């Protein structure tokens, strides 16, 4: 069964809306969670690394005020896309890693975000 | 900076044909290497991984990959593909920096 749950799986909303995506580790404690974005016909791109209890580390070119990440507990990280615009439409995937740092990461099923 | 290259963007094969997907990475230190598969409409799943030891790694569903350090390569192979192998395949690398870097993916289409 799934070890990482991502919710919602699909969001359609109007431009200017803020959207929150949740990533939960179901049967392990995730000290580190990663947020990826996938454009059509392209590979996953790492957006940010989220460590429990500390500020997320954003990749170059990713606006931290636009993509707010919170990792308040060992089983939950959230990504909020603030004031979303059509260019933010994409597929967002989270992944989580446990204390031991064992690879590989476990991936969520992804969230398809469509901004009208 | 680390990078992963998958030179074949789209591969089309007939059933029972042999498969080899190329993956090259650039990083001078110790790396961990992965192949992921994404079936249509599904999330990424791990096919196989290499950490250390035998450079020929066996994965699920009959896939294998060989780590050739001198060539910075980790090519994915399968002797005889099936229609159900139609998917997108991603090579990925991690290092001591702890973040995973993906290649751009190779779309595999299998003709019945």
Task: Write up what this structure looks like.
The complex is a heterodimer of chains A (116) and B (112). Chain A is 0% helix and 54% strand. With 116 residues, chain A is mainly β. In chain A, strands 2, 4, 5, 6, 9, 10 and 11 form a seven-stranded mixed sheet that branches. In chain A, strands 1-3-8-7 form a four-stranded antiparallel sheet, with no helix packed on it. Chain A starts with a strand and ends with a strand. By secondary structure, chain B is an all-beta fold. Chain B has one domain (3-111): Immunoglobulin-like (Sandwich), CATH 2.60.40.10. In chain B, a hairpin with a 6-residue loop joins β10 (87-94) and β11. The interface between A and B is medium-sized, with 18 and 19 residues.
Give keywords.
heterodimer; A: 116 residues; mainly beta; 4-stranded antiparallel β-sheet; B: 112 residues; Immunoglobulin-like; 6-stranded mixed β-sheet; globular
Total DSSP helices of chain A: 0
pLDDT averaged over residues of chain B: 88
Structural class of chain A: mainly beta
What is the CATH T-level topology of chain B? Immunoglobulin-like
From the 3D coordinates, which CATH architecture of chain B would you assign?
A: Sandwich
Strand content of chain B: over 45%
Radius of gyration of chain B: 13 Å
Provide a concise account of the structure shown:
The complex is a heterodimer of chains A (116) and B (112). Chain A contains no helices and eleven strands.
Element layout with pairings:
The complex is a heterodimer of chains A (116) and B (112).
Chain A: E1 4-7, E2 10-13, E3 19-25, E4 30-38, E5 44-51, E6 57-58, E7 67-73, E8 76-81, E9 90-98, E10 106-107, E11 111-115
Chain B: E1 3-5, E2 10-14, E3 19-21, E4 24-26, E5 32-38, E6 45-50, E7 56-58, E8 64-68, E9 73-78, E10 87-94, E11 101-102, E12 106-111
Parallel strand pairs in B: 2-12
Antiparallel strand pairs in B: 1-4, 3-9, 5-6, 5-10, 7-8, 8-9, 10-11, 10-12
